[in-house]
Design brief:
about 170 residues; mainly beta; 9-stranded mixed β-sheet; about 35% strand; globular
Length: about 170
Amino acid sequence: GVITMTTSHNVGKEFNLTVKGSDISIVGLEKKTDSTYTITSQTIKIEGEVQSLKCLDNLLTSLTLERCSSLTELNCSYNYDITSLDLSSCTALTKFYCSGKLTSLDLSHNTALKVLDCYGYELTSLDLSHNTALTELSCSGLTVPLDLSHNTALTELTCDYTQLSSLDLSHNKA
């Protein structure tokens, strides 16, 4: 797979990143510790069989995921300048954490998804009908209706600070 990200941090600044997988190569960062790097280029490219990626709070302006069929966990929270994200190649994704300014989020290809945390979104819709394996959902700050009728495995739900006027959980027997 290939993961490309762009940060508005200046070259020389610290960058927090945890990558797990095999045959991983990283261009644009110089490693300091297991999860701390120094930025050598504002465009960062990660190649290999990435299984887990955590790139929280790095002033990312873009994040592109190509051929990431091994990726099971993605945490790109607190990167508020990401406005679009294509997860269609991440078919093995089971955990996804993100907060930012996305207006749309297509999770139809992520049918293995079990944990979703999409706090602080400006989403115009959230369709979880393909995510029947979902067991944990945090959608705090959501301003659109939420249909959980297909998410019968759901055991944990956090949806505070929303504008929901009602929420039907009658299908959620787990």
